[in-house]
Amino acid sequence: MEQEYDVVILGTGLTECILSGLLSVDGKKVLHMDRNDYYGAESASLNLSQLYKKFRPGQEPPAELGRDRDWNVDLIPKFMMANGEIVRFLTYTDVTRYLEFKQIAGSFVYRNGKISKVPANEMEALSSPLMGIFEKRRMKKFLEWAQNYNEQDPATFQGLSLEKSTMAEVYKKFGLETGTQDFIGHAMALHLDDEYLKQTAKDTVERIRLYAGSVVRYGKSPYIYPLYGLGDLPQAFARLSAVYGGTYMLNKDISEIVYNESGAVVGVRSGGEEVKTKQVICDPSYVPTKVQTVGSVVRAICILNHPIPNTGDIDSVQIVIPQNQVGRKHDVYVACVSFAHMVCANNYYLAIVSTIVESDQPEQEISAGLNLLGPIVEKFVSVTPLQVPVEDGKKDQVFVSRSYDATSHFETVCEDVHDLWRRVTGDELVLKKNDTEEQVNAV
């Protein structure tokens, strides 16, 4: 194993695997190692036995849940925005050849104790039960403005500027109620909190356009999801890296990261073996002294034998519960997939409820989401720390990713990939846009 690599990557989480693939395509010599004997690290998909071993050691799964191989349970569920950055990663690298996708059948938002479909365009806004008749007209005008705004054409501005007007000022101009602002900001623009209200409108309007454009691409909802779960995504990027000369080693414990006298990384040691490298990329678990904990995420993986009530019996859904609706500082997310996505046995459903922890009773904080699910067959609750790097890594050339947050979509993961690429290479990550290539086939 005495070899030299441009980059050694530790951990096969999705963020690390995307970078492994992109760096290999870029011509870097990459070695990728993981202490686990499976791909995915914290973002793995587990079969039934692995799930029980992780959450209930010594307990056998109930026979009625079926065979191990019928289950691929995501520890950290994420849906892909059809026109989002994650799809650009997939199409740019041609990873889509290894994967099949299926639409998520619905995108819902919680308001006033009920869930309703998120309106994605002007026509849906007019028929949405989320708003009264006058508010529907105001919402329709807002969506038309967001879609038609053109920086080259002042006639489309309506007295507002994406570069200067705050989102709070935009909402005020259109007279939108607080509840309407909630689902626009949190279920369409997918903001994590209400800080966006103080910022200029450009980012939020671009997010709304992304949401609406993603719905147009496949209908039903803006989200797609890989058959057999997210565990296949890291493997697909691993295959890509291997095609370009990358080397993968699973079940490989890391003894230490080796530095020179000036504090820069020079190698990685595993037992009695050492490889030389100029750079290391890793998840927080490999360098506990280089990260700080900024919070925790609580997740409940729930096995159901029925679709989520009040969603029209659809096989999959994302539900966003905006913070203001339940008196919290952070949104609660519900992601549901089913046997239709090859992730559980026939006629079963997997619903994962998650949020950022705000108290010393984490499970209580996701009760608004759990209450939407109806009867639960099995429930597995975990609380994991949210960790971020203390430094950017440029000094010692050890670059650390962030923990996965509570969101049930990939937009924040993509932001982390862009941030890491910038830190590692010194350049912006630019993916060539080609609309004919960016189509991902989703059944």
Question: Secondary-structure map with pairings?
Answer:
Blueprint: E1 4-10, H1 14-25, E2 30-33, E3 45-46, H2 48-55, E4 73-74, E5 80-81, H3 85-93, E6 101-103, E7 107-111, E8 114-117, H4 122-127, H5 133-148, H6 167-174, H7 178-188, H8 202-218, E9 223-226, H9 232-243, E10 247-249, E11 256-259, E12 265-270, E13 273-282, E14 291-304, E15 317-321, E16 332-338, E17 349-356, H10 362-365, H11 367-370, E18 378-389, E19 398-400, H12 411-425
Parallel strand pairs: 1-2, 1-13, 2-10, 7-15, 13-19
Antiparallel strand pairs: 3-4, 5-9, 6-9, 7-8, 11-12, 12-13, 14-17, 14-18, 15-16, 16-17
Protein name: Rab GDP dissociation inhibitor
InterPro entries: FAD/NAD-bd_sf, GDP_dissociation_inhibitor, RabGDI
Pfam family, one: GDI
Main traits of this protein?
single chain, alpha/beta, FAD/NAD(P)-binding domain, Guanine Nucleotide Dissociation Inhibitor, domain 1, 12 helices, 19 strands, 24% strand, FAD/NAD-bd_sf, Rab GDP-dissociation inhibitor activity, GDP_dissociation_inhibitor, RabGDI
Please, could you describe this protein's structure?
The chain has twelve helices and 19 strands. It has 443 residues and is α/β, with parallel strands linked by helices. Among the domains are: 155 residues, FAD/NAD(P)-binding domain (3-Layer(bba) Sandwich); 103 residues, Guanine Nucleotide Dissociation Inhibitor, domain 1 (Orthogonal Bundle), CATH 1.10.405.10. The strands form four sheets. Strands 1, 2, 10, 11, 12, 13 and 19 form a seven-stranded mixed β-sheet that branches. Strands 8-7-15-16-17-14-18 form a seven-stranded mixed β-sheet. A hairpin with a 5-residue loop joins strand 11 and strand 12. It starts with a strand and ends in an 18-residue tail after the last helix. GO terms for molecular function: Rab GDP-dissociation inhibitor activity. Pfam families: GDI (PF00996).
